[in-house]
Amino acid sequence: MAKKISTKPGLPSKGRPTARDAATQKKLVGLADTVARNALAGKEPVIHVPTRSKSNTIWNKKRGILEIGDAKQERQLFNLNQAKQFMQTMIHASTIKDLIELQKTASLRSVFYKAKHTVAGTKENTFDTQDESDPILEDLEVSLGALREELHIFAENRGTLVGNLTVIDRGDEINARKQGSGGWGIPSIVEPDAIQFKKCEAKFVLHVEKGTVWNRFNEDRFWEKNNCILTHGAGQPPRGCRRLLQRLNQELGLPIICLLDCDPWGHYIYSVIKQGSISLAFESSRLAIPEAKFLGIRAKDYRELHLPEAARIDLSDNDIKRANEIAAYPWFEENRRWQSEIRQMLDNGFKMEVEALIGRGISFVTETYVPERLARKDWLE
Amino acid sequence: MAKKISTKPGLPSKGRPTARDAATQKKLVGLADTVARNALAGKEPVIHVPTRSKSNTIWNKKRGILEIGDAKQERQLFNLNQAKQFMQTMIHASTIKDLIELQKTASLRSVFYKAKHTVAGTKENTFDTQDESDPILEDLEVSLGALREELHIFAENRGTLVGNLTVIDRGDEINARKQGSGGWGIPSIVEPDAIQFKKCEAKFVLHVEKGTVWNRFNEDRFWEKNNCILTHGAGQPPRGCRRLLQRLNQELGLPIICLLDCDPWGHYIYSVIKQGSISLAFESSRLAIPEAKFLGIRAKDYRELHLPEAARIDLSDNDIKRANEIAAYPWFEENRRWQSEIRQMLDNGFKMEVEALIGRGISFVTETYVPERLARKDWLE
Domain coordinates of chain B in residue numbers? Predict the structure, then answer.
């Protein structure tokens, strides 16, 4: 049965500012006002930036996500160590205000170029490299409590989608059932005023790690036969892809089922999709999907499926180190089934990729492996 | 005026084998027959593989493309140094025959997994790593005179397209005018029996280097205002993207106009799009676009457009080395305007990225730079 979804009156990005834009603009003006008010009152201009570090990251067991703690850093104008970053923060805030007013978006690199110049009368550059610029934008995100996407800044589009879903993308209706072999590119900005879900018959999302695996599933029309949506994120999925998966989960109630490699990298990708990451802990509530499921590849598969020896890739010393680190993450540490999964991989002494299932036939993964696991709900959570 | 294109009766990939498949299958069987006939006649089984090296690459000045020469290497079964590669070639040929019969495609990695096993009664593996496997597939391409795509093998999809074009992709009609901010992902396999052009009003293709630049042009609806198709290839465009551009050029007569960075990497990308590359010289006639144009960024732009100092990135020693190597390519060496372009970049002592044009305004590149250059046909060829 097709779900009919009442969409919010989202505007294409070139329309008048949305309510969300107005709210962001208000926050930006508030930041500038605080600085100005202090200065006019003869007080030292200071801004407070929540600390983005492992020590200020909290595991919220109840919500099942990583969150940022209360620690904040002061950024003072009249402090030799902080004056430059203070200035950088103000320059970027000003660019973002312009972007919102113009109803345009810009890439991380463009924002860096926009800001980079030699300070008049000095030989000092505002920014020397983009490595200096990107963290200042993250500072603004977390200080203002506004997603990068709400600041009108995008990264590279990455990841692809097909399946039983109709999406409105900046006013264009995308029928994801008719996207051929190419698929619809998942945009970097997928907030509700840009992207709305119009019609969805799908019962779940199958998220795979790599584009080449996605090709196999799309060619076999897995999403049609199994009434789902098929996505990949080209490795560690970027923010746009994670946010879209979260919206599909929260707004349409679709389970997110992940098919990733049986190796520490696959486990880490799952961990980030599910609980969030330390570096973006301040955005977990808009990115993390605590309900996400890990369907495979499982360490038991080698024996259970009589896979050929070719499926085995020896674990390196670094793999073993990473596996132990991941096993010690609080959200895995308390999970007996995950502890056993990682232990079994370490006992095997080898990792396995999804592609290795070709040892059982070209379409074994789409016609047998995934359908059987789904039918008996054989996954890790 | 919209061009109506009579499409060939292309089949979705899951239909019965196409004429192209039948031809490829015949070549594969021919290869096997030769080996079998020799063996049965008591002669040594040998295959001949055209040599893919710089020394066997010829610059065809008249056609304006790189071509592979006549040099061939023997691959003998009864030669200790060649027996393994002989076996590897036969294993992959057999997998490809299966793929075509099943009407399926497989990724480079899957084909490696399919072939990898321990030879019965020995401790020897057929393949140890994918690095051994991919060149054997290229050997088969060039020996059989069949594109990798014709061998039913794909790489990662990469690159995106929007614009005034309707495409049929494995039977699905894709309206590239209605692809939102995400765009249609350019598939890895874009041969005529998979992808047909249905309707095209566009007068040219603007091909940009990066996805983030593509986003700027798409957000400003450049393709709509300038009646074109907008593509990117995520850096050096993969084969699927290059082949699609070539088909748009040859079948629809659209000029391919490239907007790339003013640096040796941008010049090299242009060179590959235009003339082909040494490693894929055997496929130039199906990939290269001798008519492709280089619109910018140009070395003169810094002064001509009064760009801010921020636009400059100092050339590294390696950049200078690469620039001189590229200037010595025969197709650039004989081109006075290109010699002057590279010289000017070296004299400047700096490179420039497309994103740096933001120094003149967020949409300067889409509203002023490209339209003005197009109007006065200010490009390099």
Answer: 19-154, 160-375
Chain B residues 229-248 with a CB less than 8 Å from chain A: 234
Dump pLDDT digits (tens) for A130-157.
999 999 999 999 999 998 999 999 988 8
- Residues of A within 8 A of B195 (CB-CB) are 180
Q: Which of residues 337-366 of B touch A (CB under 8 A)?
A: 353, 355-356, 358-359, 362-363
Residue range B19-154, CATH number:
1.10.10.10
Give CATH for domain A203-375. 3.40.1360.10
* Cα A216 off chain centre by: 24
The DSSP H or E segment spanning A68 is: strand A65-68
Between A13, A185, A363, which is nearest B183 by CB?
Answer: A185
Using a cut of 0.80, tell me whether the model's pTM lies above it: yes
| Whether A290 contacts chain B with CB within 8 A | no
Is residue B173 exposed (0-12), middle (13-18) or buried (19+ Cβ within 10 Å)? middle
Position B312 confidence tier, pLDDT thresholds 50, 70, 90 = very high
Which residue in A has a C-alpha nearest to residue B103's C-alpha? A219
Q: Please report, for residues B16, B151, B173, B196, the alpha-carbon distance to residue B12 in angstroms, rounded to integers and kept in the order given.
A: 9, 16, 12, 11
A212 neighbourhood in chain B, CB within 8 Å: 107-110, 154-156
As a whole number of Å, the CA-based R_g of chain A is 23
Q: Looking at the DSSP assignment, which residues form a beta bridge with residue A352?
A: A262
Under 8 Å CB-to-CB from A347, ≥6 apart: which residues?
Answer: A299
Report pLDDT digits (tens) over A184-221.
999 999 999 899 999 999 999 999 999 999 999 999 99
Catalytic positions of A, written as ranges: 113
Cα nearest neighbour of B128 on chain A: A310
CA–CA dist A261, A352 (Å, integer): 6
Class level of CATH domain B160-375:
alpha beta
